[in-house]
Write a structure and sequence with these properties.
This protein is an alpha+beta fold. Helices cover 36% and strands 38% of the residues. The protein has a single domain, classed as Thrombin, subunit H (Beta Barrel).
């Protein structure tokens, strides 16, 4: 699992090390990360540097649930592009 984008109006500089803690369904994720890129006024892309197995599983379960929801919505709207998104994500 690589990282995520965090929406923040004034992101810290690239290279800043962060300790993250956030709630997801099923529990609290804690990780150490580093700012890899910024979009001024929008947010920052961070890469996980340390992520415990428990936290990785929580994030994988969240992503699987999101992908399943997107696929169901896409089927209702007759959209096929979701399959490409799923393949790129690396999830089964």
């Amino acid at each position: 699992m690589g990282g995520l984008f965090i929406s923040v109006s004034d992101p810290p500089p690239v290279g800043t090390k962060l300790r993250l803690s956030f709630e997801v369904p099923g529990g609290n994720v804690q990780a150490e990360a580093i700012v890899r890129n910024i979009a001024p006024g929008e947010g920052m892309g961070v890469e996980f540097e340390k992520l415990r197995l428990k936290d990785r599983i929580l994030l994988e379960n969240l992503l699987k649930a999101i992908i399943t929801l997107i696929q169901k919505l896409a089927a209702l709207c007759n959209i096929s592009q979701v399959v490409c998104f799923r393949r790129r994500s690396g999830l089964p």
